[in-house]
Design goal:
Elements (H helix, E strand, L loop, with lengths): L2 E5 L3 H12 L3 E5 L3 H7 L6 E3 L1 H6 L3 E4 L3 H9 L2 H4 L3 E4 L4 E3 L5 E4 L6 H8 L4 E4 L6 H4 L11 E5 L2 H13 L7 E5 L5 H5 L4 H8 L11
Parallel strand pairs: 1-2, 1-4, 2-3, 4-5, 5-8, 9-10
Antiparallel strand pairs: 6-7, 8-9
Helix pairs in contact: 4-6
Length: about 210
């Protein structure tokens, strides 16, 4: 069991917070409007606080904030995140007129790398960003086994995150460790496929799968 802070209050954050709490972890959702988020909550038991409170009391923090503002938001929590594992599931993209991704905000880099640079005393691990949010906590819902990629500099932190993925329903052989944090560039670039997939298939569950 871990104390886990989940930063964000959107669909990704609530999906992950609910599943992790249901698996027996102590979860605090960190949001700028904790009372409002608590009033809307209908899942497993979690606590609510502001982002600093959620990060301060956790050993593991999940970043489910919008990727476009992630580095700024979490950079302000440097002290609260010191010595912690930070699981980054965000994507930072430019938006087209239809609101869908049209390009990468950090070409030649990644959100995960920017976070690791801004938070040198935090172990950043990138994962779960190559799928629709529903698949993050229910990978077996797809007909084809999906792949959850891991990128990060700290091997022990990646091992902890791999076990947490198991609590979310991910078998070990569906998890692919790509290497250091710079390898997050590839998974983050997968977001550029999303507009074409959604225009063809609609808002349906999907994920990237590595065929072996």
């Amino acid at each position: 069991m871990h104390n886990i802070g989940v930063l964000g209050s959107g669909r990704v954050a609530t999906t992950l917070a609910n599943k992790l709490a249901g698996a027996g972890h102590v979860v605090t959702v960190g949001t700028r409007e904790p009372a409002r988020a608590a009033a809307r909550w209908s899942g497993a038991h979690v606590a609510f606080g502001d982002p600093a409170e959620a990060a301060r009391g956790a050993a593991i923090v999940v970043n489910a904030t919008p990727g476009e503002t992630t580095v700024e938001r979490l950079g302000a929590l440097r002290e609260e995140l010191k010595g912690k594992i930070l699981i980054d599931v965000s994507n930072a993209t430019l938006r087209g007129q239809d609101g869908l991704p049209s390009g990468l905000l950090y070409p030649g880099s990644s959100v995960a790398e920017r976070l690791q640079g801004a938070l040198p005393e935090t172990a950043v691990v990138k994962t779960l960003n190559t799928m629709l949010f529903t698949v993050m906590a229910d990978p077996a819902s797809l007909r084809t086994p999906p792949t959850a990629f891991l990128s990060g500099n700290d091997e022990k932190a990646k091992a902890v995150v791999g076990r947490l993925l198991g609590d979310l329903g991910w078998p070990a052989d569906w998890i692919e460790d790509l290497g250091d944090v710079a390898t997050a560039r590839g998974p983050e670039a997968v977001m550029l496929l999303v507009p074409s997939v959604m225009r063809r298939r609609g808002f349906a569950p999907f994920a990237l799968a590595l065929a072996r």
